[in-house]
Amino acid sequence: MSQASPPPLLVPPLRLSVVLAVLAAALPLLLQLPGTAAAGIAAVALVSAASALRRPLPAALRVLLVPLIAGAVLVGFGFRVGRDAGSALMLAMLVLKLAELRGPDDARRVLAYALFAPFAAFLQDQGPLTLLLGLAGALALLWALARLERAPEPPLPLRRELAGLGQAVLLALPLAAVGFWLFPRLPGPLWGLPENALASTGISESMSPGDWIDLMANDRPAFRVRFEGPVPPIETLYWRGPVLTRFDGRTWRRNEWLAGLPAPALETGEGPGIAYTLTLEPTERRYVFALESPAGWPPGLVLGGDATLVAREPLRNLSQHRLRALPARPYEPVLRPEWRQALLALPEGFNPRTLRLAREWRQEAANDHAYIGRVLGWFNAEHAYDLAAPPLGRHTADEFLFDTRTGFCEHFASAFVILMRGAGIPARVVTGYAGGVPNRVGGYWVVRQMDAHAWAEVWLEGEGWVRVDPTAYVAPERIFDTLDQRLGSGLAAPLRPVFDFGDSLREAWNRFVLRYDAVRQTELLQSLGWRGADALAVGQAFLLAAGLALALTLALLLRGRPREPDPLLRAWRRFLRRCARLGVTKAETEPAGVFLARLAERQPAAARSAAPLVAAFVSLRYAPPSGTADARHERAALVRALRRWRPPRTAA
């Protein structure tokens, strides 16, 4: 009994193309993973690629690597089993599968498996760079599959391979465009936000000393602002977010009861106001970081009892809001007793030195304004701004004010509010962002996560709520410096136009692609005259346009069939089509003489006029090739005769 022959091995060039295609497909997802996980998977990818191209890893080692890699991925994601950890684990298994690449079947499996990677990358990020890398990875996989299907024939020249791939992509563009513009849009993302996006959304509903240290080094945009008129002074750009009123001795938290009260009547100064469009990066929260004293907002937003704008639904997508603000003034001159009690509350047993100082200084001060001025002067004279502030223990305000004397906005805002409440002045912590940097290429402002800021509000009798920013009395340059001032004349200054151009591309991408949602889709159909444009109408429009796109693609495919390069064969096929109109069709495998005999039975006159042409075609087609001038003339004459041939008028 004969043994089965071993499966064929991939030739080195084809093996290399498969490895390169898999690595290209893995790259966009790899760039979205946390640093430790990405570095580990990249190392596995390099080892597996080397194994696929050179010496295979032992089977026992591959089996051992599977649980080790799976465990490392789970540890890197804190044992959170979800979409992001699952994508990382599948990517690790994909690059490890390269180590068992041997024959064509292995190549087909790994290429099919790799198609998930560009798709999974879009679950993490939908920016233009991810799109370009994802498209490159998908095209590389198609290129490798096409080369694999041609084996064992030698590969085509690279130019012809790329031309064929480009033609296939162009044929797919009509249906892809219809899918983007007209496929019914969901009101929110199908899978929600990725965990890495949630980890970088910045401001939350709580604040403890030192919580923002990572945020202060995060240069990711939080939102972009396009002013419709002159840009207001940068020292007025306070973008209000969650207001924190409950304090447990270490952490400030939002009070849902106070925030849910009716919106206060905001007192605003004279002036035309500030009109602007705010484009927020997606979060799972509802805060809209608007300028203080908003005077106009769209219907999807509401003003809370703490004077903060919030959306009715969590902002899971990129969102854009057209807003208006007026110059800020103190507001809410009357404070209900139950509100006052909540805004003076402090936990017992915390910060005794701070509270003792607050009582002493308030007794010595002529009024609240004098007391506040003395506290701010103390901050300015004896405290410093430093992101490398040491950690604080149980008595956070005591240790900051009397021991370390260094900190950043969290420390200053928290200690200031404690000093105010200790003196009997209602106060609260306001979090949000301050300042921003202009993008000169795009003509808008960018507020980054590192612009996160905390300040205070105090309630003064006869005035109402007044903003006080203790950090601005210590280090105003750390709050309001523009990017030009931060870069100065250093090495990074010449790169400013590059940064602006790159961010303007992202902003344009956000505006024209990511913000194309169900509302804009409906507006598009209505502008095209599609009345109603409800969900049913959108579905009908999609089906109609998809049918037209498929018909166009089919027409291009039929028209783009490769043309026969031999003029004699083209003329012969034209001759046969004319014979077919007489009711006699030649089969592909039928000899020309047999076909002529059948034609004579059905159409004798046509057969008599066609017989010399058929005989000449058989002689020239199957005779040994001859390069003489007479042979070329004879061939050209036959081509002309076949093209001119028509059935006799007597043929039925």
Mean pLDDT: 82
Main sheet, how many strands, which sense, barrel?
7 strands, antiparallel
Q: Give the overall form.
A: elongated
Derived structural class: alpha+beta
Uncertain stretches of 5 or more adjacent residues: 482-491
As a whole number of angstroms, the C-alpha radius of gyration is 37 Å
E-strand count: 17
Question: Count of DSSP helices?
Answer: 25
- Strand % is 5-15%
Summarize the amount of helix as a percent range: 40-55%
Distance between the termini: 65 Å
Write up this protein.
This protein is α+β, with helices and mostly antiparallel strands and 652 residues long. Among the domains are: 144 residues, no CATH class; 212 residues, no CATH class; 78 residues, no CATH class. The protein contains 25 helices and 17 strands. Strands 1, 3, 4, 6, 13, 16 and 17 form a 7-stranded antiparallel β-sheet that branches. Strands 7-10-5-2-15-14 form a 6-stranded antiparallel β-sheet.
Q: Main traits of this protein?
A:
652 residues; 51% helix
